[in-house]
Amino acid sequence: MQGKVIVVTGALGALGKVVAETARARGARVAGIDYTPSQAPATPERIEIGGVDLSDAAQAKTAIEAAAKHFGKLDALINIAGGFAFETVGDGDTATWQRMHALNVLTALNTSRAALPYLAASKAGRIVNIGAMGALQAGSGMGPYAASKAGVHRLTEALANEWKGKVTINAVLPSIIDTSANRADMPKADFSKWVTPQELAEVILFLASDAASGVTGALIPVGGRV
């Protein structure tokens, strides 16, 4: 990671914070983009761009351009921004499906489109998306979320083929992530079976590294203890 410039979306969330902190600890310079406003001062090693709705293509483009201007280049984009909703198909609302599509698919699409010209100019351009193991076979109540994450899977595969030889594009597919929010929602679960943010960060940053130059179009499940 030494000397790399990495953009992390959803950088103020439970997973995004760990990925950004781990990348910086390994010598990367990090641009964090998030919907939550941020007042953190920019430094030569980091910049936080808050208050950005990445489901809006124009806002995503502006944020990516700001990151590229600050650092002078981009080497990797890690698309963590997203959302979750549990709702059955029969009792649910179409608006939930639209919201999941916007939060999970459009955020990744818009940032990828904006970043790809910069990443292609890097000698080792990388995109890592966050899919979901739950999108491989959707259970009851998982329809809107699983459908949107399946869209992320197909987006990953399509972009990997379109940009083969220029940028590697992969996705990690977590099981349940061990966060305080998930523990509060599922207090009776066996947390030891969940994947930790740090475990995910290790796989994500491997895919963003020079060592993963031969991997593209892969959908990698992480957290098979469930």
UniProtKB/TrEMBL annotation:
It comes from Bradyrhizobium zhanjiangense. Gene3D superfamilies: NAD(P)-binding Rossmann-like Domain. Pfam families: adh_short. PANTHER family: BLL7886 PROTEIN (PTHR42760:SF135), SHORT-CHAIN DEHYDROGENASES/REDUCTASES FAMILY MEMBER (PTHR42760). Coiled coil: none annotated. Belongs to the short-chain dehydrogenases/reductases (SDR) family. It comes from the Bacteria. InterPro entries: NAD(P)-bd_dom_sf, Sc_DH/Rdtase_CS, SDR_fam. This is SDR family NAD(P)-dependent oxidoreductase.
